[in-house]
Amino acid sequence: MTEPNGERRLEGTGVTPAVGVGPVHWLATDLELPEPPDADAVDRSSERERIVAARERALETLERERAAAVERVGESEAEIFDAHAAFLTDPQLEDGIDEAVDDDLPAEHAVQAAFEGPIAQFEAMEGPMAERADDLRDVRDRLVRELLGRETAAIPSGSVLLADRLTPSDTAGLDPDSVAGVATVTGGRTAHAAIIARALGLPAVVGVGEELRALEAGTQVVVDGERGRVIADPDPETRNRAERDRRVEPIAEPVETADGRPIEVAANVGGDDFAAAATQGADGIGLFRTEFLFLDREEPPTEDEQCEAYADALETFPDGRVIVRTIDVGGDKPLPYREGASERNPFLGARGIRVALEELSDLFETQLRAICRAAATEGGGELAVMFPMIATVEELEEAQARLEAAASALAEEGIEYERPTIGVMIETPSAAFIADELAARVDFLSIGTNDLTQYVMAADRENERVADLQDPLHPAVLRAIDRTTSHGSDAWVGVCGELAGDPAVTELLMGLGVDELSTSPIAIPAVKRRVREVEASAARALADRALEAGTRDAVARLLDGE
């Protein structure tokens, strides 16, 4: 859409709450293959040797890139390179390439042909699985580049990178100090490339659509990853505002509203990236996702291994709090070393605390022991334990009993420990409805808006057909949040879903009575800055109006100041 001031505004999906400004540079992604020779000129043995050598070089490059990615974006995001290595050595893909060579195709054409079918199969799927086609394209192009001896072209410093789509390796190789931002024609927030861009802190907007192709190289653009917007030919006022927003410096100290209400701003972490959270000004860890300790391995982590990981987090925040969420698997996160029963709808089945109390009770006990031991870390901050997917008081009481049993066992064994403070995640409508009962039994409640939205709206968050219902600003979700914060006990309430990282929603959440916001490290500076601008009384008035709204559009208009 062209504005009266000549700006062109394109809408997409924001990935990172950050803003970038710079000239357009289009990423060259198409690998043009040379014309294949006549079939009788193809030496099958020679082509197979080329493929084997190219695969070995690609695996070596992947290993180097993985090591670099661990340093830049953390272990969990870097694991995508393990998946790519698995694709490179996948027997079915290898057989497909071999069959194409048997049809007298040269190596690079054989690779192209073998990947066409699997890529098409992923593209035909719904939800995030469709985005795995990008991973296959990445592996295919990597192998073809090795066969052709081509290197990825350099990206001019300070430019905004545009592409039809970005692959994970494209994204992981970007330097956030050099690239001003990225925007793509296709893609979604859950694609691996988007996840890596978010971890890097790169301003990014994906899924802009065909309009993006109209932007020529050199065009000045603003990439607003917070609002999901690309602005071409920005006027001086827009550009100055973008430059100001781009320079959001971390705020090390705790923050409070303009009228003195303190709000804790913590980090969500899913690996050992505690230092990155501290660098961005996190007051602590509001959500320590412990699944990374249990997944992508052949056996569960030991008690000592877990204790060390939790203690490392505590030592990073000696004056803060670290909230460890107990093992949250099932649904979309099965354990490779435990066979689970197949379920027609795993998101409504055995996951979170349900599976921890039953078939994974041994792992749960070990984790609780590790948490109690880590809580006694000398020089560390406060350790809290948080139980996921609680739906009933009985589940909470059973989890608390297991924690008490773990502490008692440590005492009998003469092992140093402390009892952590206790909280529950509010992710189910039932938990929101009985928040008063839950709050009376714990120290805090933490609202997981991603799952809460999914269950309140009865909309699978991995199904794009109902993506429009996956909206945490729907009045039904806001009323569930309000029901939770109105529990009437001393327990404090936090939000640890993606909503917590959106500065445009900070005032509303504070008005709803939220005491803590936990988000990705890169979003923390902007959220802290917004907290300082808000007046608690005005926030409450905004929340009251939002709770009276009947539609998502009405809420959006309120947030836009209408």
UniProtKB/TrEMBL annotation:
- Pfam families (alphabetical): PEP-utilisers_N, PEP-utilizers, PEP-utilizers_C
Q: Which reaction does it catalyse?
A: L-histidyl-[protein] + phosphoenolpyruvate = N(pros)-phospho-L-histidyl-[protein] + pyruvate
One Gene Ontology BP term is: phosphoenolpyruvate-dependent sugar phosphotransferase system
Key word DNA-binding present in the record?
Answer: no
Origin, by domain of life? Archaea
Protein localization: Cytoplasm
Q: Which residues form a coiled coil?
A: 52-79, 389-416
Its Enzyme Commission number(s) read 2.7.3.9
**Which residue ranges are recorded for the region named Disordered?**
1-21
Residues involved in phosphoenolpyruvate binding: 289, 325, 450-451, 461
* Compositionally biased region (Basic and acidic residues): 1-11
Report the top EC class in one word.
Answer: transferase
For this protein, the record's NCBIfam families field holds: PTS_I_fam
PANTHER family linked: PHOSPHOENOLPYRUVATE-PROTEIN PHOSPHOTRANSFERASE
Q: What is this protein called?
A: Phosphoenolpyruvate-protein phosphotransferase
Give the species: Natronorubrum texcoconense
